[in-house]
Specification:
Blueprint: H1 4-27, H2 34-41, H3 55-79, H4 86-103, H5 105-112, H6 126-149, H7 165-176, H8 182-203, H9 215-225
Helix pairs in contact: 1-2, 1-3, 3-4, 3-6, 4-6, 4-8, 8-9
Length: 239
C-alpha cells in the first residue's frame, strides 16, 4: 500500500525532473544545475540529495524521461497504421521521429548531441540505458517484423566487408540478442545512419546553408531507402 509519504516523495521527484527539463528547454543543458533547480522549486540544493544521489543521476533520469516520451510518440505513430502495412509503419515512424526532433530541439540535443558536462558515463545508469534501449528497439522491432513477414535481399556473410563483419556480429550478439543474418543487421544500421543523420543535420541547423525547407530532401531520403527493404514509398498526406 502506498503511503502519503511515498506519494509526496513521488510528486517531488516528478517536480524535480519537470523543473530540470524546463530549465534545459529554456536555458540549455549547461544551466541544468542542482542550484538552479532548487531555486526554481524553493528548496536548497543539498535538499535535492534526498531524492537523487548526484547531479549525474538527476540528468540521467531526465534523459530517460525524454527517451520514454519519444518512444511513446513513435509507437503511437506505428499504431495509427494498419497492422499489415509495413511500408506505412516505416514511413510513419520515420516522419514522427523527424517531427519530434524539430519540435523538441533541446531535448533532441540532449539525447543525440554532444555529451553533457556532468553526465558521468561511468556512473550506474540503468534507468537511462533501459529507456534508450526501448527507443532503439522500436526501430529494430520493425526490421524484425519485416524480415519475418517478407525477407528482403541481403548479402551473405562472406560478401560483407571483413572489417565490418566482427563488429556486426558483436553488435548482434551483445546488444541485440536476436537471431538475424548479419546482412540484415548491416541494412538496419545503414538505414539508421541515413535517418538519424538526416534528422540531426536539420535539427542542429546544418542544412540552412542550402535549404530553407529540408522536408523534400528528407522525403527523397525515405524514397531511396524504401526499395532495398521491399517497401513502397508514398508521399505524406497534405494537410
Amino acid at each position: 500500500m502506498t503511503t502519503r509519504r511515498d506519494r509526496l516523495r513521488e510528486a517531488t521527484v516528478r517536480e524535480i525532473s519537470e523543473t530540470a527539463r524546463r530549465i534545459l528547454v529554456e536555458q540549455g543543458p549547461e544551466a541544468v544545475t542542482l542550484r538552479a533547480i532548487a531555486r526554481e522549486m524553493g528548496m536548497t540544493a543539498p535538499a535535492l540529495y534526498r531524492y537523487y544521489d548526484s547531479h549525474s543521476e538527476l540528468l540521467r533520469h531526465v534523459v530517460g524521461d525524454v527517451y520514454t516520451e519519444l518512444t511513446t510518440e513513435l509507437q503511437a505513430a506505428i499504431a495509427r497504421v494498419p497492422h499489415d502495412d509495413m511500408s506505412g509503419k516505416f514511413l510513419s515512424v520515420a516522419r514522427q521521429f523527424r517531427s519530434w526532433a524539430l519540435g523538441h530541439p533541446r531535448e533532441y540535443a540532449l539525447l543525440f548531441g554532444a555529451p553533457i558536462r556532468g553526465l558521468d558515463p561511468d556512473e550506474q545508469a540503468d534507468f537511462a540505458e533501459e529507456c534508450a534501449r526501448q527507443f532503439g528497439w522500436t526501430f529494430m522491432a520493425l526490421f524484425l517484423e519485416l524480415w519475418q513477414k517478407k525477407p528482403f535481399p541481403v548479402p551473405p556473410d562472406e560478401e560483407l566487408d571483413p572489417d565490418l563483419l566482427p563488429q556486426l556480429r558483436r553488435y548482434r550478439e551483445e546488444r541485440l540478442g536476436v537471431s538475424l543474418p548479419l546482412g540484415v543487421i548491416q541494412q538496419f544500421l545503414k538505414c539508421w545512419v541515413r535517418l538519424q543523420g538526416s534528422v540531426s543535420l536539420e535539427a542542429f541547423g546544418h542544412l540552412g546553408f542550402a535549404l530553407d525547407d529540408a522536408a523534400p530532401m528528407f522525403e527523397l531520403m525515405l524514397q531511396e531507402i524504401a526499395p532495398p527493404l521491399g517497401l513502397t514509398y508514398s508521399p505524406p498526406d497534405k494537410k
